[in-house]
Amino acid sequence: MYTNNSCSKIASVKDLKERIPGLKELCRQCADFYIPARNKSIPKYDIILGKQHEEVLMDFLEKKLGAKTERADLENRSFPDCKILKPDGSVAAYFEVKFHGAPFVRAYNFTGRYCYEGSATLDHKKIEKQLALIDGGLDAPVFYVHWLEYPCLKGIFYETSEQVKEYMHSQHEVFEREKREGDK
Q1: Rounded to two decimals, what is the model's pTM?
Q2: Burial status of residue 81 (CB atoms within 10 A of its CB: 0-12, 13-18, 19 or more)
Q3: Which domains, from first to last, does the chain contain?
Q4: What are phi and psi of 21, to 5 degrees?
Q5: Beta strand 82-85 with 68-71: parallel, antiparallel or unpaired?
Q6: More confidently predicted of 84 and 149
């Protein structure tokens, strides 16, 4: 997300709290809500939310942009979930929607990155496996679409599979969140 920007460095949370009215209070409320484990109540809720957001995005692409979209990987579930078709029915692009609804409030303690820039993460092992499959079997570009709905940041951002691959190869350390009840 920060590859193409005009900033010389990423602003610290402290700087942002001083410059943005109400952010200090919002951060306090956010931490109080998001630090305790929340995914124990509804098993596979993240999968349900992800599919709903995929449907909304496919609907938007069809109705607003006239693109033909459909589910892509109904068999082995390892390739990206959605695809955009060309008028002749061939695949123009694949995409996978990653819904991020909970910021990693304590990211700085583990990764040295702030919650607003370190929360849109991908499952390293799953993505590594998927990237290998993409390289070996897909002839259309692949996009990872990040749908963010944090209290202080909302938006839809994307990156190509090549950008993801470059980023993963440049990382020396990977943070893995402990599995909790309700995780897939």
Answers
A1: 0.72
A2: middle
A3: 13-170 (3.40.1350)
A4: -60, 135
A5: antiparallel
A6: 84
